[in-house]
Amino acid sequence: MIKAAFFDIDGTLLSFSTHRVSPGTIRAFNKLHQAGVRTFLSTGRPDVLIPEMPVAFEAKITMNGGLVFTPEKVLLSNPIRDKELQAWLNLARDKHLCTMIFTKDNMFLAQPNEIGLKLRNQLEFEMPPVVDIDEMRGHTAYQIIAIMPGEMDSAVGELLPHCRLPRWHPYFTDIVSFDNSKARGMEAICHHYGIRQEETIAFGDGANDIEMLEWANIGIAMGNADEKVKKHADLITTDVDNEGIENAVNKLL
């Protein structure tokens, strides 16, 4: 029996073309709630970048599991080690890389460039306050956005041994604490609500959704997901612009 459903945002709940939740997804949420299924958000975004949506969530996994909370309680909080943040900021300064950091309540951007602006336009989020990169040093960061090519991932991973880089976009990679993941956030939520792992489903499309799809009893990859993501799913549905969530929910319920 399904008791909990977890949803990524970009490419899953929100279309990259319309930036909206589809009518079919709204119908699917209504069907889940009528069946007694709790719905939860699971995203790489910080709370400050989560848009208003016409669907409801009882708890949120944000920043790839770095911060997990209900409206009343923080269930999990695991920021990046300060030593690792400083190492990244030194590299970003020396290489003049565009970078963002997400804190509990804010976000900051340093050294903006054309690629960073393209990213902002594609995901359609509000531009963070632009600061000097050294102004980022006094903050507690739960997630770093590194605007850099994939060829740099290996070297940056060696520089930050207690972090991992769940890249889900060609323009940039997320950087989070090594033991943070959406799956760890799911585990915290299920423990809080008394839900068993075998009672869960999850929807995602990006590489940072792989652990979530594997942890869920039924992991559902959107049709627009990368092939490497689909390999970790139990079910592949249609893409986000063709009512992928509704089609999967109708099949499962």
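(the above was protein one; protein two follows)
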Amino acid sequence: MRLVVTKKDRYIYSVLFDDNNQPLEMAAEHADTPSRLGNIYVGHVNNIVKNIDAAFIETEGGCMCYHSLKEKCSYLFGPHANNDRLCMGDYVLVQVEREDIKTKQPSVTGKLQFTGKYLVLVHGMKGVRISNKIKDKEENNRLKVLFSNCENENYGLIVRTNALQVSNERLKAEEERLAALYRDICTTGVHKSKGSLLYQSYPWYIDLLRDLPQDQLTEVVTDEEEIFAAFSDYTAQFQPEDTAKLRLYKDENLSLAALYSLQKWEKEALSKHVWLKSGASLVIEPTETLTVIDVNTGKAISGKKAGDETFYKINEEAAKECMRQLRLRNLSGMILIDFINMESEEYNEKLMRLLKELAAKDRIPVNVVDMTGLRLVELTRKKVKKPLHEMVAE
């Protein structure tokens, strides 16, 4: 995989390409207004609305954020807290867990998380959890034993998939770094004023470098010296093995955006229609409450007699492209896919198994729920960042 980062029209574009130079993920962030996602603030509880079981918490710059009281948190309060429960007027440390999307305000949590390449330290969690994607029993046992003495009453650890086959020394070093950062914020944060920014998360392109397995990312290319310096600083501190993958592109005759056809890929990623090699197509319609994807046979069966075997081949191709488009466009929430109807239950079950296999490859949690009585496939994708069409529209 190759990560390409460049500036265009006051936006920072980040595109992750696969080995066939097809874009897998794309984001456009305003260069002057970085995302708040992952930031930690001293929040001020402005209001508590009991009938929706929620609190509205003010953060930096008067930004009002939503917080669900159904989420059981072990809060870190500032001075003069009334009790262990949130009350109006309280100062509390919160982290942005979801950006503002359409008409919805940003969402914050009291479960502060500090993410490294191999571990996630979570305030208020108990013990250690190993990633479900680590299937190797020996590795699972090694990691459990390594962190078996993590009995801190204030936080717990999540061992990420990237920890697979990583040395004990490296994993423990990251645990110590995250714990030191956590202690520093806990100690100083409770004495800061309302709205103070305590921790600023990394830009999306740095997150990608951190989150992708080391053996998958082959190159990181940018033509911006400031961005290259940010990559260099990060890898020097935390991922020295990836420093050699960084490249500063310089060519006055051909821009980086033109070299990788970013304008073309952006246009396709924002298009309502997606054509498949078979001649079939997808129609992608994001709405206020959900995203609907319709699979059309189009030219794929034009003038031909078609049965379930033919329909399955088209649905198989469509399923792969649907899951790619969800990741590329960062579509989230509830998603309905109207595949071509197949009478055979065997083919329908095969299609559902394929979707679950594809969903497991997404970095964002995807849940393939079910196929309804009307043969609509329902799935959900966790809302974290804004979808691409909203980023560009802004």
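Reviewer note on protein two: The CA atoms of residues 244 and 254 lie 24 Å apart.
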